Amino acid sequence: MKTYLPIIGLEIHVELRTKSKMFCGCPADHFGKEPNTQTCPVCLGLPGALPVPNQQAIIWTLMIGQAFNATLNLESKFDRKHYFYPDLPKGYQISQYDEPLCSGGVVTLPEGVISLTRIHLEEDTGKLQHTTLNGQPVSLVDFNRSGVPLVEIVSEPQIHSAATAKTYAQTIRQIIHFLGVSDCDMEKGSMRLEANISLMSINPGSKPQTDPGFIRLPQYKVEVKNINSFRFLEKAINAEIQRQTAILDRGQLPRQETRGFTEVTGTTKSQRSKEAAKDYRYFPEPDIPPLKFTPSQFKTLIPQLPLMPQAYLDLFIKTYDLRPDYAQTLTASPKLAAKSLAAFILAQKQGLDPAALANLMINQKAITVKLSPSALVNLLQSKIKTSQPQSKTTTLMPLVREVLKQNPDLVTKYHQGKVSVIGALIGAVKKLSPSPVDPQTVQQLLTQALAQK
Ligand SMILES: [Zn+2]
Question: Domain tally for the chain?
Fold first, then answer.
């Protein structure tokens, strides 16, 4: 029995939520619209129509590059990628080949750092709808999506498990969501996942060499498409690992091909043999001049990045003392994270404990969604008031006494006039208490107990 190391790279497409399409003035918001109502000669690929790049889409792609610490290229260009499909009326897609807007970059995961190959900008294709018309099976084409700005984020083949692939994709979605440049809705297709999977034979018991500089990639790779949820991504990769393992165990090499994931069976099915780059006959788009920037143009064009999920997490855990899992929950969306931060700042101003407010927000999610930060702080205040008599006499005072007993040096300092030590004493009570406490109440009790000493 051989052992195999999965070699996985992901290609993630996100549609940008610009007002207009990538190369024409048609609205980019195509979801749920009457078919073929948002089209023009450019996005229908009619002869003679000229594409004009969307500046907003270019800036947002650079913003994404910046968020992932990619190199923003001073020179880049659009290329034509040729292939035939009914949803691509021009016979080619305007994409970027050897000179993308952004090169490199990293995605930091708890499992380690995954390097990015590139981040480029292209146009989306139309959409096929397979249905029946007068009892006949037909395929209809809707060109509303044709030409919508699409960003592709390509990772290096540095992912070695389905679980890491899922975390990677979720992290990418969270960061782009926080940038506010795409709604990243997998159900609506505004975020799409593709995985390239192959298996590398390794000697059992030996530590696999996964360093990108040294790794020798397998001679084939299988691309899996049609993955429209994170759960299916994990399933599709595991199914593919199983299928390829069986082939390799028989002493054969899996075919280089594109396969589609079928949700019902949880397996992948061959679609076509995989194209190589040369099959696409890439060449520079003659109707769009190359893009040239200076470093100072990048500075003025690219807006300052908003607070990213990791920055919120650091603030919530380090500054506001939140439990890590609660901090994670409250950074699930940019809206919730911003609201939580505003509420914590307000709570602290009013002498309330942000961590206690976080508990309230997590335990009463339905209320949290509706209330404003100040209403949340008021709610916490009213809860503390009603529970105070009990917590003061029965639970908090013994904790306060215990803390004073454990910190005789701080007590001495306090009596010597160093009143600021009360902060450390409040912290100690907080740590000792099994449930969140209101710092103001603790301070009152501490002052009271210290006066008796
Ligand atoms: Zn158009």
Answer: 2
